[in-house]
């Protein structure tokens, strides 16, 4: 749509000759002079055009005489000042812009002549796009947060950009899309054309040690920016170094090296200001870029501006870009510094600017200097008139405004010059601004000036407004508040109740009063409400969290209802939680029964945290007793509180002088968590606590704290007041709020909560955070990542990353504080008992054993009054006491609140406490003492001074984040050492450090010093060889030596330990199997050990592991392996004296030699997978259990992770050993290690094939179950009850090989619940007698009859005369009634025990079951036998009466003694009848008594003579001939003719191509005639498969592949596919893969992959399909159809998350042009198989970038129509019909829209569509007529 302010310029006429081209271009540029009125011109002929060109030349000559330069000789032919408009913009046009607004994902850019452009984040630079992709994919982005545009751009920045495209917005206005990518801006440049002095735009590509690499968008060019060149730039922009990746830069080329392949840059603003383009740069219009500084020479001064020449080109300078404060006008020939604004690539027009503010790199353009939008100026004088364009007005002394012609009046303006003369004054209103032009955009329209609102920002939440209804929709109504502002009243806000049909109450055009709910200026969305309660409410408007003061009552509406409460919405998106407990008297009811969405509620603010945007509400009155935050609450404020209640984990308090309740958690009584329970026991109700600090506000009241670390941090200003105060790398003091296995939640004063992930809580690997931290523990945290959008952040608790901020306290001060605090509390508690128990510490006292347990002993000490003494297992070593024994103990610790004293019974510790006392002088500061380690705590070691009962506390390297579970470290109980006293507390406690160590004043080495020392160490270490390292390490510890080890960390199947006393590099591992001697099933032997535990073990072996430490990098020390010792803690190993060698481990490769098959071993679970369980058996020996071998109970296999816990031990039997990988294959089945007949084992359904079920068995076996072996009661569809991957039990019947096992699923065989066996599993025919009624399944139907399986061993035959009561002449017609697998009921007619032959009958008279053929089959019934006999006799009598000779039967045994009876068929008019002849009494010589061949390859029916006698006369399958009678000559002639006729018919049948082949010979004849026909070959294969002759079918396929010509690729492909299908259905996976690999060699690989994956999908092999697709997307990564098909498969199998991840992966491999199609196809999948809302979002994202993609719109509309959401469909149709598409496409969309409304809408909606279509046609006709 054309903007009236910028009408279209003239067109350029094309001619054939150069002269015509020159004249037409000059003419075109004169027509493009938009400041001159352009009269309407009709199409002129050749003479008229020539005449006009002559007049133009004369006019130019006259202007030249007046002092204006002739432009005919200039290359770009600029003769007048140019004004830019939407119609003149073309893709690829370079233009200079000024950033007007910055959002997270796009820029709003001010362009010349008042135009506005938009740049999306994906069009900024390739570097930024890559960073976004890395962030979205979760790649390692070095801790950087998500790159957004506000971090790179600021309003007022000048940018060089290119017009990407001009599209039409939803409202019909043109929208300019820009690209700032250096690749597009510098597209005309090449590396060889670059010269020093050129100014280019670029972006930071990477950050290097000495500078930055810069992306200039020039292919093959490397640009480098030295850090020294950035200082002035960073200082002027007030930015911190280093710059970010993607940072936009304007760079000056300092030097060009390597022939244009590398350049050095600078970004100094001073140098950039002086960088004027010279002629020696050889610049052309194609290589010039906007923003380039040039020295221009004025050639002409016009009314609308200036023309100037530069570098051989001519440019125009609009008067807007001529400085207004200039004292004298420009004159011809004057040299002026100018800046290029844009270069039109088609017309070669160049626009310049004389405004120096555009190239002043030190400052930004002030976008705030313009008047506020909506400001009204009463007297604005006209200072310039642009003919046909608009006017420029003087708004103030320094402000100018431009009003386009469309904004001059509400009525059409005929002549601007007449109506708006220079100097006249008018009222106007600011509607926009143009920072690049330096002027405001105004409107003189009275309607605009009187508008109440011009933009959404003019509205305030809670404001009452009045508007007019513009449309009524089912989802709400649209309200127009002014010509520029529209809002929406959603359905729930139309009234206090939910209206079912809003159209009955509201009509278009009605006036309506509303209240503003929310103003989203960025998304241009205005939400209104028409609820009467909210409109008439007099309560305060909560439009911000700051306004939500505790105790405030306000009206809101229910946004959502959950089981825990309601979410209540107020104004401006202020939301609060109404907990279930605060809902009044019905607090116990389900909130869903009390509230509904949209309900208006009046609630009270209980507490509010504006920084966190958390608001808690209540429906209860203020005097209901619900605690609220204190009125004077302020984080960090010091108050005195009074204890009101003592709870087990906290104190209830209230601030003195106030009744506001609060609480003080127990863990906030001190920074030392070990003292908190002791301190809590000191307080009672009524006590006053001084110096408490407000910490945070909770729903239960204000929380106060006594932690000195928090009080000091808040006092020193280390408090977070708003979320913006949280910055990366900031170190804060806080406490542990919650501990979870995946991480630790840390809370800080003010209620801010951050998460420390498991990887960031310790410098060592840990599996579970719960063992390291406890709730309430004081910690130091470092902020690592801040998410401002979601208002959450991550922290690190690693001690190496969290120094103690601003605290100079040493470990001695910390220890002194802990001891003093504890002593004061203990003295206060023990004062009531009249004794100072602290004096008993370290003393040796008599005690009596009262209880002995595995963990230690409990004793009674008379001197300790009511305290119970406890000695741990470590402190009971060396004793052998029983209950009642008396002994001596040494007091170590006192736990007064729990009345427990920790003591030691170890003799070595008691002996050190001699009676002779140590001299007091040595207990002074500086004295050195000999001591013995007694115990260890988190912050100190407890030692006993030798020769004394005195104790000392030795400092340890400690950090608040270490936790309390640190163990002894390198020390051991009983270890001798020396200490030096550094301080003696007032209570007499001695604090010491290890002798030789300084307590304070030791200067910490800086990071650089540490690095230098580390490098020196490395340089020395690299001179040693790897072999020497191994020898040195192994020499330190001998194999078999007993050592002490400290647990360092836990892994999946072992401890990592450090062997003490042998240096820090002596590392070891303790395998789970070497922890304990007797491990019970289900026991976790490593559970009782923790980090820091010290134990005794024996070294039993040496292992080597490759390391990648800094000292052992592959290029410096290749092949280096670190020695790791295998240690055993098993008591039998440790205490073995001389025979310990039998426990030593062999070499790593020989460790499976000690295991044998069928051996029972203990294994330890590592991980549970879907199909198997990984286990560890012993050091270096792993194990594997298949899912089916885990347990005899099927229920255990359904969820093995619930039965087999990680790190727990279980017993298993070895089934096989893989020595190459040191892996044992195990089984937990009680009676099975190999498959054998009669064994009942687990099975899993692999696939279902016709007639059988294929199963996976334990130990890698494959089995199958026939239909008769599936159940004790046969059913019509037995395979339907089984599903692929179903787990069940089966009994093995036959086991020919591991891959061919016949099984039975019958409960009677498996041993299930005892049920009546309805269909027995017959072993032989002897189990059956004649007359039995049996059931079975049809196995085959051929010319010999129907064969049914009664069990897997017993089968029977049904002759066709016994199969049905209907007479069917062709047996092929019977096959469809007897398909394979059909359940049938039969009666046993005859049993041949000798030949194992059964004759059955399906007839209804025999079985009582309806006939297998339905009544509607259309076949006649068979004639009963007695009726046939009667008819035969009647016919004989008739012949005798007629004188016919009596038939005689003559048999000449000598002439015809073949032993085979011959029958002759006699034909009658009614039906064919067979007349039997009584056989000879003598037994024939050929007797077929061998019985039937019941296999599938039955070819000849072996029927005895006795059986032949019982055949029916009309049995179509058994031919019985009469003895020949003498025929007349005539009869013989007729018979000969008949035979010839039959022979002729047979020959014709052979020649008939449509005759179906009946035998293999027939097929051979066909394939000989058409050897290249794949259809014939496939039918030949199917013929053999029907008879289950698999090998023959495979042979036919191989023949086909050799026979078909190599040119017939498609025919051969069909055979390959058929062969793969055959192998998949009837063979093993190995044979299928062999055929597949062969097919890949002879066909297109992608085609074969697709065929195989389709085969897998058809047969339900989901896992194989997934694996094959995974291979395909790697091998054919650039084929989009492969990614789409894989996504379709994942969506069909309910794996939406995997499909989403797959789509993101595809973008890395596919070309960008395929991304749109891939996204659209995945969106269609979401509509059909996944989340419809996600699919809609994906389509919307595509259309936002490609709004004119007709195909995408068509698919999107189709998907929306299928969802049934009519409103969404109509919105989509309205959007697409508003686009400016081709007439053909628009016609198609309107037609579909109309059809949709006719089907789903009513007459009104149909008429609306027709009206829109007419409006489009009229608009098109108008455009054509105008053109």
Automatic annotation (TrEMBL):
One of its GO terms (molecular function) is RNA binding. Residues 92-181, 197-268, 291-355, 374-445, 462-531, 551-620, 729-798, 842-906, 1040-1118, 1158-1229, 1238-1306, 1331-1403 form the S1 motif domain. Keywords: Acetylation, Isopeptide bond, Nucleus, Phosphoprotein, Repeat, rRNA processing, Ubl conjugation. Its main location: nucleus. GO terms for biological process: rRNA processing. Residues 1-73, 993-1031, 1405-1539 are annotated as: Disordered. One of its GO terms (cellular component) is small-subunit processome. InterPro entries: HAT (IPR003107), NA-bd_OB-fold (IPR012340), Rrp5 (IPR045209), Rrp5_OB_4th (IPR057301), Rrp5_S1 (IPR057302), Rrp5_S1_rpt_hs1_sc1 (IPR048059), S1_domain (IPR003029), Suf (IPR008847). Residues 44-53 have a biased composition (Basic residues). The keyword Transferase does not apply. CDD domains: S1_Rrp5_repeat_hs1_sc1, S1_Rrp5_repeat_hs5, S1_Rrp5_repeat_hs6_sc5, S1_Rrp5_repeat_hs8_sc7. Residues 16-29, 54-65, 997-1019, 1423-1443, 1530-1539 have a biased composition (Basic and acidic residues). It holds the Pfam family Suf. It is found in: Nucleus, Nucleolus. Residues 1509-1518 have a biased composition (Acidic residues). PANTHER family: PROGRAMMED CELL DEATH PROTEIN 11 PRE-RRNA PROCESSING PROTEIN RRP5, PROTEIN RRP5 HOMOLOG. Interacts with NF-kappa-B p50/NFKB1 and NF-kappa-B p65/RELA. Essential for the generation of mature 18S rRNA, specifically necessary for cleavages at sites A0, 1 and 2 of the 47S precursor. Directly interacts with U3 snoRNA. This is Protein RRP5 homolog. The gene is PDCD11.
């Amino acid at each position: 749509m054309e903007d009236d302010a910028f009408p279209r310029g003239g067109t350029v006429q094309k001619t054939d000759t150069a002269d015509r081209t020159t004249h037409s271009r000059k003419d075109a540029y004169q027509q493009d002079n938009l400041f001159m009125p352009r009269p309407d011109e009709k199409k002129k002929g050749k003479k008229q055009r020539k005449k006009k060109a002559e007049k133009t030349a004369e006019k130019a000559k006259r202007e030249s005489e007046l002092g204006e330069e002739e432009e005919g000789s200039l290359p770009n032919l600029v003769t007048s000042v140019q004004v830019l408009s939407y119609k003149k913009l073309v893709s690829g046009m370079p233009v200079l812009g000024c950033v007007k607004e910055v959002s997270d994902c796009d820029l709003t850019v001010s362009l010349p002549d008042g135009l506005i452009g938009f740049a999306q984040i994906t069009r900024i630079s390739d570097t930024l796009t890559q960073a976004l992709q890395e962030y979205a994919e979760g790649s390692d982005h070095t801790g950087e947060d998500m790159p957004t545009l506000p971090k790179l751009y600021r309003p007022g920045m000048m940018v060089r950009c290119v017009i990407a495209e001009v599209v039409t917005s939803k409202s019909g206005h043109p929208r300019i899309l820009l690209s700032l990518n250096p690749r597009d801006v510098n597209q005309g440049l090449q590396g060889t054309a670059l010269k020093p002095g050129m100014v280019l735009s670029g972006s930071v590509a990477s950050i290097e040690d000495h500078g930055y690499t810069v992306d200039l968008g020039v292919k093959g060019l490397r640009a480098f920016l030295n850090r020294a060149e950035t200082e002035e730039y960073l200082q002027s922009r007030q930015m911190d170094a280093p710059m970010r990746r993607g940072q936009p830069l304007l760079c000056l080329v300092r030097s060009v090296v390597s022939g244009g392949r590398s350049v050095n840059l600078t970004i100094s603003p001073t140098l950039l200001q002086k960088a004027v383009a010279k002629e020696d740069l050889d610049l052309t219009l194609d290589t010039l870029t906007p923003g380039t500084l040039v020295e221009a020479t004025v050639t002409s001064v016009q009314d609308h501006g200036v023309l100037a020449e530069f570098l051989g080109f001519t440019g125009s300078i609009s008067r807007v870009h001529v400085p207004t404060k200039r004292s004298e006008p420009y004159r011809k020939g004057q040299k002026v510094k100018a800046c290029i604004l844009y270069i039109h690539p088609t017309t070669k027009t160049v626009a310049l600017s004389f405004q120096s503010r555009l190239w002043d790199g030190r400052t930004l353009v002030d976008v705030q200097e313009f008047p506020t939008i909506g400001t009204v100026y009463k007297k604005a004088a006209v200072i310039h008139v642009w003919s046909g364009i608009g006017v420029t007005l003087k708004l103030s002394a320094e402000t100018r405004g431009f009003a386009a012609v469309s904004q001059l009046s509400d009525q059409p303006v005929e002549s601007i010059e007449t109506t708006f003369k220079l100097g006249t004054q008018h009222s106007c209103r600011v509607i926009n601004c143009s920072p690049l032009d330096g002027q405001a955009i105004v409107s003189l329209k009275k309607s605009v000036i009187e508008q109440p609102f011009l933009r959404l920002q003019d509205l305030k939440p809670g404001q009452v407004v009045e508007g007019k209804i513009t449309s009524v929709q089912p989802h709400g109504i649209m309200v127009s508040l002014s010509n520029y502002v529209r809002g929406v009243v959603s359905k729930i806000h139309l009234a206090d109740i939910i209206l079912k049909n809003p159209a009955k109450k509201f009509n278009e055009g009605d006036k309506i009063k509303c209240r503003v709910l929310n103003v989203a200026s960025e998304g241009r969305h205005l939400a209104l409400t028409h609820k009467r309660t909210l409109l008439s409410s007099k309560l305060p408007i909560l439009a911000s969290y700051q306004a939500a003061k505790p105790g405030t009552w306000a009206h809101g509406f229910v946004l959502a209802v959950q089981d825990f409460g309601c979410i209540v919405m107020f104004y401006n998106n202020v939301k609060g939680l109404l907990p279930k407990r605060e809902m009044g008297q019905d607090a116990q009811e389900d909130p869903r029964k009390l509230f509904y969405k949209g309900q208006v509620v009046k609630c009270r603010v209980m507490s509010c945290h504006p920084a966190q945007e958390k608001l808690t509400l209540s429906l209860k009155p203020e005097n209901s007793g619900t605690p609220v935050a204190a009125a004077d609450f302020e984080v960090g404020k010091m108050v005195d509180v009074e204890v009101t209640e003592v709870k087990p984990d906290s104190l209830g308090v209230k601030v003195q002088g106030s009744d506001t309740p609060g609480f003080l958690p127990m863990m906030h009584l001190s920074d030392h968590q070990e003292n908190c329970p002791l301190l809590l026991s000191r307080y009672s109700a009524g006590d006053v606590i001084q110096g408490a600090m407000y910490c945070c506000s909770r729903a239960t009241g204000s929380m106060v704290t006594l932690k000195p670390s928090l009080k000091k941090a808040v006092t020193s200003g280390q408090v977070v007041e708003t979320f913006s105060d949280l910055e990366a790398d900031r170190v804060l003091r806080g406490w542990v709020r919650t501990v979870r296995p995946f991480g630790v939640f840390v809370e800080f004063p003010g209620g801010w909560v951050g998460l420390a992930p498991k990887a960031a809580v310790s410098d060592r690997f840990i599996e579970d955070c719960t063992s390291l931290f406890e709730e309430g523990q004081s910690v130091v945290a470092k902020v690592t990542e801040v998410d401002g959008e979601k208002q959450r952040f991550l922290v690190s608790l690693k001690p190496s990353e969290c120094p103690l901020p601003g605290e100079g306290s040493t470990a001695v001060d910390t220890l002194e504080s802990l001891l003093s605090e504890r002593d004061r509390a203990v003295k206060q508690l023990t004062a009531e008992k009249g004794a100072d128990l602290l004096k008993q510490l370290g003393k040796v006292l008599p005690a009596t054993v009262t209880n002995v347990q595995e963990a230690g002993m409990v004793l009674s000490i008379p001197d300790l009054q009511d305290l119970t003494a406890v000695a741990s297992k470590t402190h009971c070593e060396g004793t052998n006491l029983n209950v009642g024994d008396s002994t001596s103990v040494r007091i170590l610790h006192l736990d007064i609140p729990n009345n427990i004293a920790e003591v030691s019974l170890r003799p070595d510790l008691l002996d050190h406490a001699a009676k002779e006392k140590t001299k007091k002088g040595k207990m002074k500061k500086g004295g050195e003492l000999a001591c013995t380690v007694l115990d260890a705590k988190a912050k100190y070691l407890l030692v006993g001074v030798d020769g004394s009962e005195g104790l000392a506390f030795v400092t340890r390297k400690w950090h608040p984040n270490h936790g309390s579970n640190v163990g002894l470290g390198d020390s051991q109980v009983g270890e001798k050492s020396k200490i030096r006293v550094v301080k003696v507390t007032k209570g007499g406690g001695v604090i010491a450090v290890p002798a030789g160590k300084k307590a304070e004043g030791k200067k910490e080495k800086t990071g650089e010093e540490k690095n230098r020392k580390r490098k020196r160490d490395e340089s020395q270490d690299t001179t040693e060889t790897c072999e020497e390292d191994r020898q040195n390490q192994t020499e330190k510890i001998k194999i078999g030596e007993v050592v002490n080890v400290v647990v360092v960390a836990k892994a999946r199947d072992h401890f990592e330990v450090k062997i003490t006393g042998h240096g820090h590099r002596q590392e070891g591992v303790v395998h789970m199997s070497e922890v304990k001697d007797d491990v019970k099933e289900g026991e976790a032997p490593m559970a009782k050990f923790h980090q820091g535990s010290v134990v005794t073990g024996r070294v039993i072996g040496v292992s080597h592991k490759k390391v990648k430490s800094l000292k052992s990098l592959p290029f410096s020390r290749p092949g280096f392996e670190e020695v790791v010792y295998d240690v055993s803690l098993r008591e039998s190993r440790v205490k073995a004296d001389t025979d310990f060698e039998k426990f030593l481990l062999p070499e790593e490769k020989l460790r499976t030699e000690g295991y044998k098959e069928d051996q029972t071993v203990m294994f330890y679970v590592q991980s549970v997978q879907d199909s198997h369980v990984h286990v560890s058996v012993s050091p270096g020996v792993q194990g594997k259990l298949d899912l089916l071998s885990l347990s005899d109970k099927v229920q255990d296999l359904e969820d093995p992770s619930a039965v087999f816990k990680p790190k727990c031990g279980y017993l298993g039997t070895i089934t096989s050993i893989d020595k190459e990988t040191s892996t044992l294959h195990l089984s937990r089945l009680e009676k099975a290690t190999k498959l054998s007949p009669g064994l009942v084992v687990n099975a899993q359904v692999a696939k279902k094939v016709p007639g059988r079920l294929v199963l996976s068995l334990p130990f890698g076996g494959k089995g199958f179950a026939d239909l008769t072996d599936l159940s004790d009661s046969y059913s019509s569809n037995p395979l339907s009850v089984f599903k692929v991957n179903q787990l069940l039990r089966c009994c093995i019947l036959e086991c020919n090989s591991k891959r061919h096992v016949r099984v039975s699923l019958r409960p009677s065989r498996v041993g299930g619940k005892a049920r009546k066996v309805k269909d027995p599993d017959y072993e032989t025919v002897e189990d059956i007698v004649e007359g039995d009624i049996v059931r079975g399944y049809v196995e085959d139907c051929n010319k010999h009859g129907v064969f049914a399986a009664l069990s897997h061993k017993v089968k029977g035959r049904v002759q066709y005369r016994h199969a049905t009561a209907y007479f069917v002449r062709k047996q092929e017609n019977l096959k469809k009634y007897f398909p394979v697998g059909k359940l049938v009921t039969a009666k046993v007619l005859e049993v041949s025990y000798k030949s194992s032959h059964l004759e059955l009958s399906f007839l209804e008279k025999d079985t009582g079951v309806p006939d297998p053929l339905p009544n509607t089959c259309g076949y006649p019934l068979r004639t009963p036998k007695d009726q046939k006999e009667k008819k035969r006799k009647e016919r004989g009598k008739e012949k005798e009466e007629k004188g016919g000779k009596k038939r005689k039967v003559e048999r000449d045994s000598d002439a015809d003694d073949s032993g085979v009876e011959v029958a002759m068929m006699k034909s009658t008019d009614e039906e064919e009848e067979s007349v039997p002849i009584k056989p000879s009494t003598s037994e024939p010589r050929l007797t077929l008594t061998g019985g039937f061949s019941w296999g599938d390859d039955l070819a000849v029916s072996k029927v005895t003579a006795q059986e032949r006698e019982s055949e029916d006369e009309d049995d179509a399958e058994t031919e019985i001939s009469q003895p020949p009678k003498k025929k007349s000559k005539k009869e013989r002639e007729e018979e000969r003719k008949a035979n010839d006729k039959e022979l002729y018919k047979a020959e014709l049948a052979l020649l008939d191509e449509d005759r179906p082949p009946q035998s293999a010979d027939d097929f051979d004849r066909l394939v000989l005639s058409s050897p290249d026909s794949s259809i014939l070959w496939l039918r030949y294969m199917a013929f053999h498969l029907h008879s289950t002759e698999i090998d023959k079918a495979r042979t036919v396929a191989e023949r086909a592949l050799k026979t078909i010509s190599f040119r017939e690729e498609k025919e051969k492909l069909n055979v390959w596919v058929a062969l793969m299908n055959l192998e998949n259905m009837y063979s093993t996976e190995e044979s299928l893969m062999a055929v597949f690999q062969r097919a890949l060699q002879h066909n297109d690989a992608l085609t074969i992959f697709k065929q195989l994956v389709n085969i897998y999908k058809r047969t339900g092999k989901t896992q194989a399909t997934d694996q094959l697709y995974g291979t395909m997307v790697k091998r054919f990564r650039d084929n989009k159809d492969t990614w789409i098909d894989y996504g379709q498969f994942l969506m069909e199998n309910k794996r939406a998350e995997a499909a989403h991840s797959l789509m993101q992966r595809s973008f890395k491999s596919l070309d960008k042009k395929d991304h749109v199609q891939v996204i659209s196809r995945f969106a269609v999948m979401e509509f059909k198989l996944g989340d419809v809302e996600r699919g809609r979002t994906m389509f919307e994202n595509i259309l936002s970038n490609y709004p004119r993609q007709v195909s995408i719109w068509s698919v999107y509309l189709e998907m929306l129509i299928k969802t049934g959401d009519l409103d969404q469909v109509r919105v989509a149709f309205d959007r697409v019909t508003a686009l400016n598409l081709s007439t053909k496409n628009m016609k198609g969309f309107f037609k579909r829209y109309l059809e949709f409304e006719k089907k789903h809408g009513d007459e009104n909606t149909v008429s609306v569509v027709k009206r829109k279509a007419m409006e489009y046609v009229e608009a098109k006709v108008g455009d054509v007529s105008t053109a």
